[in-house]
Structures are given as structure tokens and as C-alpha cells.
Amino acid sequence: QLQLVESGGGLVQPGGSLRLSCAASGFTLRYYAIGWFRQVPGKEREGVSCISSSGGTLTYADSVKGRFTISSDNAKNTVYLQMNSLKPEDTAIYYCASTTKATVQAMCAHGAVDYWGKGTLVTVSS
């Protein structure tokens, strides 16, 4: 059974950092493009950052450029999202997702994915 499991969310003060993890089971991540998305209740899901299967192409939403970094560890079958300089507006449920059928640009811009994780909550508040 293919699964994506997010972890690492929590409560952090503005200016703080968190690292989210997306662990895959039942399939090998390095053959998939992987993306991080976030959603606030009442708003549309937003593509935050996506990475190609080769790791050579990365995309970031303008709102997180320079603060967030996506990376992958093939040995651990895990993709990470390092989030620094967090702001209250980063508060959301963060989801990871995978696809073999879309470019990272299409994945992040249009949510073109095959599998979703269940999400992890990030709250940025003092």
C-alpha cells in the first residue's frame, strides 16, 4: 500500500524554524516528483515547494522563497521541508504529495498529484 506520512509540525514562535518530513512507504520516492502543499481552513490549497524525481528541479512559492528549502534523502526514502524565519501567515496544515505524471511546475501550480499524505499542522504564534 502506497503511503506518504508527514511529521514535524507543531507550534513555533515567529522567526523560528521547523523541519517537516515526508516518509514514503510502499514505493520509492526517487522515482516521483514530490511536493509540499499547505491549506488554511476556508482557503484553497497552495503549492509551497516541489522537487523533481532527479532532485535537479526545485520550485518555491514566492511567499516562501529564501526561507524554505526542500530536499530529499533517497537512503531514507524521505523528503524534507526546512522552514526558517517562520511567520504567522505560514500557519496551515502542510501536506506532501507525489506524482509521476506531471512536471514540478504543474504539480505545484495546479496540484497535479497522484497521492496525498494526511498532513501535519504548523502553527506560528507567540
How does this structure look, described?
The chain has 126 residues and is mostly beta strands. The chain contains 1 helix and 11 strands; from the N terminus they run E-E-E-E-E-E-E-E-E-H-E-E. Strands 2, 4, 5, 6, 9, 10 and 11 form a 7-stranded mixed beta sheet that branches. The protein has a 4-stranded antiparallel beta sheet with strand order 1-3-8-7, with no helix packed on it. Strand 4 and strand 5 form a beta hairpin.
Q: Quick summary of this structure?
A:
The chain is mainly beta and 126 residues long. It has one helix and eleven strands.
Question: How would you describe this structure in keywords?
Answer:
126 residues, seven-stranded mixed sheet, 1 helix, 11 strands, globular, mainly beta, four-stranded antiparallel sheet
